[in-house]
Amino acid sequence: MYYKFPSLYIRTAILFAFWAGVSMGTHVAFTIGFDFPLGKGAFAYIQTHGYLQLVGWVGLFIMGISFVILSRLAHFNHFRESYIKLIYILMVSGLTIRFISHSLLPYLTGFWYLIMGGSIIISSILVFLAIIIYILFLLSIVFHTSPIIKVPNRDIRYFLIMNIFGWIIYGLANVILLSTMVNNGQIFLPHGINLFLVDLFIHFTIFPICIAIGLRALPLFLKLKKVDWNARNFSIIYLIIVSIYFILKAINLLNDDIILINETYLLAIIKDLIIAWFIFKLNILFRDYKLNNRISKNISCSKREEFKIFFSNYGKFGHFELFIQSAFIWLSIGLFLDILLHVMLIQKIKIDIGIDGIRHMWLTGFTSLLIIGMSIRMIPGMTSTKKLKHPDRVIWLVRIINFSILFRTIYLVIPESILLSIPSIGIIALRLFGLSGILFMFGLLVFYYLMAPILNNNLD
Ligand code: HEM
Question: Is 143 helix (H, G, I), strand (E, B) or coil?
């Protein structure tokens, strides 16, 4: 017997993003987009938004889904259910305390600063304890996995090991940095170190688990060609390149003298190309819908009919595949811009592509779309519901979220010289950036109401 699907993880991830994580980002984006002055709490808000989104939105989702999917993939079900509950309690209490106390911290001094500062430290310790227990689960999967999973084209264990490193470093570094911050009477973390950790978490924890689950589940769900290449070797190459890249970045961050800078940029390009190769091998961007449709329905029909079938047949899960395809399109655009940025850096040519925009293409675009699409496709099957109540709404959700990502990123990644060359475009892009968070929050509401009947059905 495998675990009952932990619906609470998913409900809480959505609610947390709506009420805490995204709403903080929305506040800051609105302030910038409509030319209001950034208050003294802005940096604390931005960092708390980043943390809550990474750990609360992405983290809770990944944890919730991985308890079921990784256990099934590895044929392992000996992790105690009480631990799954304990992780949930620790995570939710840690994240709630962080949200409240770090939002108030910038406005406090003396006694109340110490109380809120102390709460922030406690919150990071609670999350770190949750991470340690979660890692026990991941380690059980890595070490007790059944022999069929160990064949090279199915082996995702190195990705899980990277995932473990990412969680430990991000969780522990937050405990240390937040304690130092409170000890020094500050209200936010050193910018460079914090962003280094964010990028490390993206490349060690988020990307590997998305690739690992993608490798195993996407060919099945999207009727893609089976993975017939050596996934294990691929994961080892990714691990080596990403590790050297982050070691060099860390050396440069901690030293006053910058060393091997061009080599670091080059590694960033290689790392991007490796991920691009994965997208190419998965053949997800150029998937032939019409052919798939014809094959799956075993019919031959005219082009016009094929088109109609594709856009009218919502199936049990709606057009979830559009989420997954757009996720990979955002990932590809982000990779292309990141490569371009690093080529220009090597050539010492100034180019105005904001790394914040690229980061949001990977987080809001790729990761968030992928987890939404995968939840719509997988969670009904993991609960007793089996299908969505309103599959026709999925296509609306795809549009809302994609527009919000476009608004969120376009202002940051299109060089200012281009934006200013077309009258009013710069100001329109800035205003759309300001509104992007509100649109994303609306999308979260639609997502919540789409998933609520399924998640409610599975509650104890
Ligand atoms: C449309 C919804 C969102 C809005 C409006 C938004 C807004 C912002 C803003 C204004 C910043 C600060 C400046 C910048 O880095 O550009 C920021 C930073 C950040 N955001 Fe978002 N965000 C959104 C969605 C997300 C999502 C879904 C994630 C993660 C899955 C995320 C993770 C982050 C991270 C990690 C940072 C860096 C924080 C730091 O500097 O420490 N954001 N966001």
Answer: helix
